[in-house]
Amino acid sequence: MLAAMPPTPPTSPEPGEPLVRDRGDACPGALRLHPADDGRLARLRLPAGVLTERQAEVLADAALRLGDGQVSVTSRGNAELRGLGEGCGAELAELLAGAGLLPSAAHERIRNIVASPAAGLDGLGHADVQLWARELDALLCAQEWTTSLSGRFLFVLDDGRGDVAGLGGDVTLIAEPGGGALLYVGGAAYRVAAADAPRAALAAADAFLRAARDSGAWRVRELPDGGAPDLAAALARADVAAEPVPVPPPLPQGAPPALGELGERGLYVLAPLGRLTSAQLRALAATGPVRFTPWRGVVVTGAGAERLPTLAAYGLITSPDSPWVGVGACTGRPGCAKSLADVRADALRTARASAGTAGLLPVYFSGCERRCGHPQGTWADVVATGEDDYLVNGVPVPRTSLPEAVATARTTR
Ligand code: SF4
Fold this sequence. Notes:
The protein is of the alpha+beta class.
């Protein structure tokens, strides 16, 4: 059940005018397909990474019929379809809308909400932030002015376990024990009631857009010095009672859930290199809704340990001992024209040669120095500099020596 809508939602002071100067936000969406070397790419925002069983089925079907048969899990827990044909945009939009995956065409790219993916399943955390995500999404889609946010602006909702708080949100909420929440924006923090948390996040977005009016910043960190958002004023406009926190605690840098069982009726598994086949997605959603995670994994609901062998048989990563754990890669060749190498194939070879992954740092393979989708925190950095040449943590390494160099980098950085 969603909480009541805010009595006085923050609004643009000049209705009808975008708050942020348009500087050509070309971020892909489900309606704005991006031309890539392997066809069109659609990025579908999934607030809190959630797909119902039916939505998963529709997405799996769309990937098979219109794309390359796979669904990628992004570093924000969103979904991407690749290899789409030139003329399939309208059919894709109809399929997604019919499954409730496009509640507002105008807002489809700004519904960027990451939430603790195990919230409500394993008894940890101080609030069910999955419910916050639904409420915040409804609030975002109910306001016209929110369409001025860029497709990169990110809300992060952490249930207090600290797993997602450090993922670089523009607006971050952390649940506290006793029914409170901390709201972080830039270097400032406010304490609000948990029941007000989604409205506080919306107010923070309003404060950001007003602060970004002149600079056209897309993210809070892009605001010029001295141009911090006026959170206090925005919270007051939204009738959210808030108390400033003079010395905000540092954001926790938590970890993903452990692979395997999650509470009594939940599981956590990984998609190899973040990509699911349609068959894998169907298998994951066979027992209940799924949640894509920002670590390119999937939380399964409605199933316990008895389901793990089946998911493993589909090629999903279910054990922390798998050599795939912690291995990631960007699109690389042939999907990305900028890529200097087939980094996914090289990541595959490197993972296969791994003796084990326990205690190792994550490793991320990038086809060029942009490092799209790289993990947060500390990781071993593998960047192609040519078809047969890489930099591993900045040190030149020939492709043939990647397994040894990566093994060392995952223990030393
Ligand atoms: S890191 Fe470079 S090669 Fe990889 S997807 Fe991004 S632009 Fe393409």
